[in-house]
Amino acid sequence: MHLHKTLSPRKGFQNSLLVASLVLSVSVSLAGCAGGGGGWQMPPPVVETTRAAQLPWTVNYAATGTLEANNRIDLNTETPAIVSHILVREGDAVRLGQVLIRFKADKQLAQVQQAAAGIAASQGSVEQQQAGISQYQAMAESTRVKWQLTKSELARYEQLYQEDFVSQLELEQKRTAFQTAASEYQAALQQLNAAKAQASQATSSLAQSRSSYHYNLALAGETVVRAPFSGIVGTKYVDLGDYVAPTEKLMTLVDNSVFRIAFTVPERYLSQLKLGLPVSVKFEGLGGKTVTGQVNFVDPVVDPDAHTVKVKALLPSAPGLKDGLLGDVSLALGVIPDAVVIPEEAIVPQGEKTFVYIIRHEMYQPRTEAGKEKAPAKAEEKSAKPAEPVDVAHLQEVSVGYREAGKVQVVSGLRPGDRVIVSGLQKVSDNLPVNPDPAPPSGAGTKGN
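RESULT FIELD:
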């Protein structure tokens, strides 16, 4: 059974007045304790501070990049072929020029032998024609001399005949001898020219035979796949007896002596990009392994859609590095020699603005409500000892620049050596005393008073 007692309206009103009176009394008492000269006051909140440091700041840009081997190629053939020999296995280290795969080459080798035989035959014909030329040249020279002699003899006999020293018969004999010599000389010249033409034809045939030989030799060379550089054999795509078409992949060859990391950088950093900039790459897939290198390529073209620039950096070979591995890239774009730096936890964001709490050691003057004057001091307060400076927190707007690993660069609003609050910010208000907790130097500056 529950008993309910109903209060009269008058009783309820009296009780309400009593409660209000008690609350007001307690409030007045607390206010008197807080404001009176000898009463109890809330102690200043304990905070941790640090001093804004001035030090060199390396401007880093972070990106994700893909590792590329210095050389990587998928080997293939230019002509259809049948695999007859595979001389390496996946994972083998090979040297430049080493034979990796052979194709069936019976037809190509036969054509090479046929072309070699054609060269030998053409060479013999050329030598034979050269010998004939020499023979006909000697014959032509002999008939030329005989023709010149008979020509001179005929001229002399014609003069003697005019002077009646020789007979008509003798003159005719000399004329016949001259004509015979001239005919022999012309016949020798025709034979020489014919021999030269045949030699030229033999020389042309020899050139064609040699061209055919080199062509078939090149075709035979395509039946052998050699390593274009030293490296490691990757995935093999064919087996013995496979028929392969042109451009079909045979196997992958990778040069792991040097790697490149490829990544993109926003175009706003274009003026700072240059060859030789240091990079540091962290590979989470290798347990956080870090490798350092240098930029060796900056794309001369900006991507018009993404407004980024492709950058590549050379990295030395290291255990575990593999083509296609992802890495976290830190690109050092430059150094600010005298940056003002504070810990990131000191930042107090308010809307679109950024603030910090600065501590100044000064005479504390509590703020009064607008329109009200400060109450006159009591007699006992006037006789008290003079007030001393205390540490007061002031909300200060700042402009920040770069951020990295818990640190912030302050562009304006702070000077080196300014004390800022880094811990206990939830207990701090503008223009109120605080109690800095001394701490050893760490991070971006010196903590403590």
